[in-house]
Amino acid sequence: MADKSNGKFVFKTVNPDDPNSGVTRQNLTDNYGIQPFLVSPLFSDQTYYFHMVLNNGSQPQVIYPSQDLSEGGIRTVIENALKRSSTGFLKSVGLWTPPATPTQDMFGQQRQPLSGWQNIRNHLSQEYTVRDVDLSTGKAPTDVDTLFVVLPQNLTDKERFAIDQFLMRGGSVIVAAGNYTVDVDQFSQGLALRPLDGTLRDMLLSYGVDVQQSLVMDDQNQPFPV
Fold first, then answer.
1. Average pLDDT by consecutive 10-residue portion of the chain (226 residues)?
2. Which helix (H) or strand (E) holds 76?
3. Which of 2, 16, 44, 57 sits most deeply, having the most CB atoms within 10 A of its CB?
4. Which domains, and CATH codes, for the chain?
């Protein structure tokens, strides 16, 4: 791509462990929120980076590794990132996810929540412009095409109103809803189901969508280490 761009696209490989690179691991975390990958989560503490950072205009954009590592796959990821940083190319998605609130174990130690939503954000970012939304004011942003609400819980009346009004204005809403979430039992340290409060169940039911109080179980499963 660089050879065919007439100097408009410049690619540089940076090793943050090289003292002469001018970039440190801390720089990557502070400036871009980039965290290294573990070589093996169970058998090694070695880490590596496999990200790209695109500077096109004033806002740098982190490109996360795709499953397709072919030349064509990498070209597609970079081209999509260029479109996201240019005006008018891609549709925008407003993403709402539950707050990542740490919990406490039986010894009073803080424990990070099991659920993280970075993978959803990364996958959406390959095709759309993604921005986090705050619905607590009772208003959804007017500059997004679609509102994506993931595992709604503890929603206030204002937040429900914002979603309803976004629909009434003709916006598209996608809801990944359920009535339970997986948590770690404070005493047994095993997995447990926790019923959710403040969901969108009643609102969805008014639109004819019934999120039932049940679970979908998979017979082919594996133990989960905690």
1. 78 89 89 82 78 79 76 80 67 87 58 66 83 92 89 93 89 90 70 84 90 80 62
2. helix 71-84
3. 16
4. 1-88 (no CATH), 90-226 (3.40.50)
